[in-house]
Design goal:
Blueprint lengths: L7 E4 L9 H11 L9 E5 L5 E7 L4 E7 L14 E4 L1 H8 L18
């Protein structure tokens, strides 16, 4: 769904997730000094840590996606301000509730000869 060359940013710290399109777009513009219409993906986390919102402009308009975990919390960077860049694979792990900072393989790699 997200194009390969898209930048994905975690917005560090806690965000008031009562905000919608307008509030989160304003936060991207003022706090991060970026354009919410540039096509980048911005991920915000609420205070409890079990809810995230994703803001993305897909070329036609703004998309606002939300995910709430049934159990556990989303892994979030320790920093309180700024952004952290993610790959698409890390975003996928984040959305699944997996610690994207230290993913563990289920089986050791073996070399085929």
């Amino acid at each position: 769904m997200i194009p390969a060359n898209t930048h994905i940013w975690i917005v560090a710290g806690v965000t008031d997730l009562r905000r919608g399109f307008t509030g989160l777009s304003a936060m991207v513009q003022t706090a991060l000094d970026k354009s919410p219409l540039a096509g980048d993906v911005y991920v915000f986390r609420g205070r409890r840590g079990d809810l995230i919102k994703i803001l993305w402009h897909d070329g036609d308009g703004l998309c606002l996606l939300a995910k709430k975990l049934d159990r556990g919390k989303f892994t979030w960077p320790k920093t309180e301000s700024g952004t952290v860049s993610l790959t698409r694979a890390q975003l996928s792990m984040l959305c699944e509730g997996i610690d994207w900072r230290r993913p563990v393989r289920s089986a050791p790699l073996t070399m085929a000869v």
